[in-house]
């Protein structure tokens, strides 16, 4: 029976991260020849190449990129195991392990998780971001207490889980003061041909936003696409383009990034779900989070209080 040599896999992982065998050898304090030999053994065992030459460096093959995803998860879990065992004698806080789907607005994620940190019991928050299918696979084996996503659990996944709607929010458009001075039209007309920063393909709201543009005969000039909303907000702060975020976070974004809200729409809603393995919420932090979402963050009274 063929088994995976994790030493070889770690060498592969280090080379992929470093971009070359020479740099990985320096970090591992091994000779380049030794690293190269270990990689060849791993590729021979797998029966495929993991790297190809790209100038003076290396680039991953398609199989190599897939192997890197698994290696990331394997060694991240290994580090978590060490941390867990080392800290166990002194740990008293309740762990709250949350998976955050890629494309989620970071400001919204913070607002939803914050109530869990205000429990009387000490909470140790562990947040991991990733693609939703991978997060749900980890949820199924209880590596997470909850996954936060902008869509319910897909029906085509063979994973037991339940989607709990936390709430929904319309969208608000933002821009820096310097950029808005160059856009004299009123909302929504000022969006037409204006530089715009678009949420990435993993964001569930993206196709609905593009449809809204079409319905209003608006053609913004897309100058950037971002999977990470916090990075998109930072570019928007510099005046690189207008951008959009849930209306529930408008006050926070205006203060944090020193931008102005230029208009909003309730015709496009962004929804937020807590996905758990429980049909009825039980974890105290998840219960607190869900309660705050319904009574404050997404409630009409809560929205009115934030204006």
Chain-wise SSE layout:
Elements: H1 6-18, H2 21-28, H3 32-46, E1 51-54, E2 57-60, H4 62-87, E3 94-101, H5 106-113, E4 123-130, H6 132-140, E5 146-149, E6 162-175, H7 177-181, E7 195-199, H8 205-215, E8 221-226, H9 229-237, E9 243-246, H10 250-257, E10 260-276, H11 284-297, H12 300-306
Parallel strand pairs: 3-4, 3-5, 7-8
Antiparallel strand pairs: 1-2, 5-10, 6-9, 6-10
Helix pairs in contact: 1-2, 1-3, 1-4, 2-3
Q: What's the alpha carbon Rg, rounded to whole Å? A: 23 Å
Strand order of the largest sheet: 4-3-5-10-6-9
What value does the average pLDDT take? 89
Strand content: 15-25%
End-to-end Cα distance: 64 Å
Classification by helices and strands: alpha/beta
For the secondary structure, the number of strands is 10
Number of helices: 12
Q: Which sequence of SSEs, written as H and E, runs from N to C?
A: HHHEEHEHEHEEHEHEHEHEHH
Biggest sheet overview: 6 strands, mixed
Please tell me about this protein's structure.
This protein is α/β, with parallel strands linked by helices. It is built from twelve helices and ten strands. It has helices at residues 6-18, 21-28, 32-46, 62-87, 106-113, 132-140, 177-181, 205-215, 229-237, 250-257, 284-297, 300-306; strands at residues 51-54, 57-60, 94-101, 123-130, 146-149, 162-175, 195-199, 221-226, 243-246, 260-276. A six-stranded mixed β-sheet has the order 4-3-5-10-6-9, with helices on both faces. Strand 7 (195-199), helix 8 (205-215) and strand 8 (221-226) form a beta-alpha-beta unit. Helix 1 packs across helix 3 (32-46). Mean pLDDT is 89; it is low at 303-307.
């Amino acid at each position: 029976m063929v088994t995976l040599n994790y030493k070889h896999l770690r060498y592969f992982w280090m080379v992929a991260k470093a971009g070359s065998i020479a740099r990985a050898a320096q970090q591992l304090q091994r000779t380049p020849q030794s690293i190269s030999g270990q990689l060849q053994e791993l590729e021979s065992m797998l029966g495929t190449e993991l790297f190809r030459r790209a100038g003076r460096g290396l680039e991953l093959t398609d199989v190599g990129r897939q192997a890197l995803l698994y290696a990331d998860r394997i060694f991240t879990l290994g580090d978590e195991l060490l941390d867990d065992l080392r800290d166990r004698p002194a740990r008293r806080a309740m762990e709250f392990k949350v998976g955050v789907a890629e494309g989620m607005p970071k400001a919204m994620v913070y607002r939803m998780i914050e109530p869990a940190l205000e429990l009387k019991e000490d909470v140790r928050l562990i947040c991991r971001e990733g693609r939703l299918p991978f997060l749900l696979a980890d949820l199924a084996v209880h590596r997470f207490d909850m996954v936060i996503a902008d869509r319910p659990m897909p029906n085509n996944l063979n994973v037991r889980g339940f989607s709990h709607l936390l709430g929904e929010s319309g969208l608000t458009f933002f821009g820096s003061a310097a950029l808005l001075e160059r856009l004299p039209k009123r909302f929504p007309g000022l969006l037409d041909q204006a530089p715009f920063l678009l949420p990435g393909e993993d964001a569930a709201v993206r196709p609905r936003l593009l449809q809204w543009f079409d319905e209003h005969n608006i053609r913004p000039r897309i100058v950037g696409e971002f999977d990470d909303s916090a990075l998109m907000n930072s570019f928007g702060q510099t005046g690189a383009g207008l951008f959009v975020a849930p209306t529930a976070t408008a006050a926070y974004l205006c203060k944090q990034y020193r931008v102005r809200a230029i208009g909003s729409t309730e015709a496009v809603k962004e929804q937020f779900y807590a996905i758990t393995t429980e049909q009825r919420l039980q974890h105290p932090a998840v219960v607190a989070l869900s309660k705050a979402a319904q009574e404050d963050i997404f409630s009409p009274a809560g929205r009115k209080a934030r204006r």
